[in-house]
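Hi R.,

Here's the chain you asked about this morning:
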Amino acid sequence: MSSDKETLLSMGFDSTRVEWALKATSNRGLQPAMDHILENEGKPVPDLSAAVSSGGSSTAAVADEDDEDAEAVRAVYGPGGSGSVDPQAKSIKCSECGKIFRDAAIANFHAEKSGHDQFEESTEEIKPLTEEEKKAKLAELREKMAQKRAAKQAQEVLDNKANEAIKRKAAKDMGAIKEDLKAKEAIKEAAQRKKDKIEDAKAKAAIKAQIEADKRERAEKAAREKALRQGAQPLPSQPSSAPPASSSTAGKDYKETRLQIRLATGGPPYTTTLPSDATLREVAEFLAGQTLAVDVDNVSFAQHFPRKQFSPADFSRTLKDLGLTPSAVLIAS
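And the predicted structure, written out as tokens:
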């Protein structure tokens, strides 16, 4: 430990930053401590009296410089005390790759990085670097750290761009799906409005024709009654030139019947479309399901145009048989 600290101090690093680096890297060696100092250059030094175990986790993964760099730094600034080898040995050699290290600290660092575990003592002496070589090596280490940071930032920019592209595509696809559903719903609503408009026009035409027929019938009846009062021969009734809408449409095969049901007590009408072969009782059941004021067994229906009162016996007849197709207005009481 003391040799790593002395080596870092001899390199010109501040003593408080050296203490911080050694504690943050859990005393893993010279190279991790120096990486920590370079990476956190310019950052304030935390209170070293507090627990620093959390600080080591974020910096332990940064120690991946070339083995030659670690070897050169240790060679420049001297061997470690606790990790030094036998005085007769000048260095430690890796039997697997042939690299030579000044002491056990750098050899252990090499073993952690490479996975090599075969080492031997060597009498080969590592020559110290000159002052110019020391400065050049330190500058090289700083440059490598800067390149790593730049590469990491560039990768983060690429990742962010890719994520934004994925989000934009997902939003675009979702917008297209919503627009398609909206267009289909609009087409469906337009078709339904057109159908309702046609059915309403047919119903109004049928009611208008029936009103005209009723007017003619009342006029003929009044003329006959007037002739009888005057003692003249009553005129024979003329066949209606415009038969009731119900008789003109009863023979046609309408699959559905559109009904508008109004309560005799007032209130909003109830509209439904039933098969033409549905019975009048099914109409009563529909109405009873819409309002508690109606009971299936007690309700009765009437039609104003043409004026007609439906009896309980009619509940078993179909809407087609009753002449209510294709549409009609019923009064429920």
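Residues 131-229 form the longest helix (99 residues).

Let me know if you need anything else.
M.
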